[in-house]
Amino acid sequence: MDHFKNHASGLDSPARNAAPVTPDDASDLPVAARSLYVGATGDVRVTTVGGDTVTFTGVPVGILPVRAARVHATGTTAADIIAVW
Predict the structure, then answer these.
(1) Which residues pair with 20 in a beta bridge?
(2) Mean pLDDT (the chain, rounded)
(3) What SS3 class is residue 56?
């Protein structure tokens, strides 16, 4: 039973969906992420939904609060990345 199924989700609400990320220099994520979960520390290079391409260095294990359209293979050393939305 889901007591919250009829409630609107805001950006501060828990994610409803999640999928593993395969970093790719040429393709966007199937669905833009509201944030990324990083399972193994490292750098994460992304293109944001706003179109900026940046590298977050030394990202610890946990949630990276960035709205990502693409996670690049080149420049990403972190592993076990999961997109949540």
Answers:
(1) 82
(2) 94
(3) strand
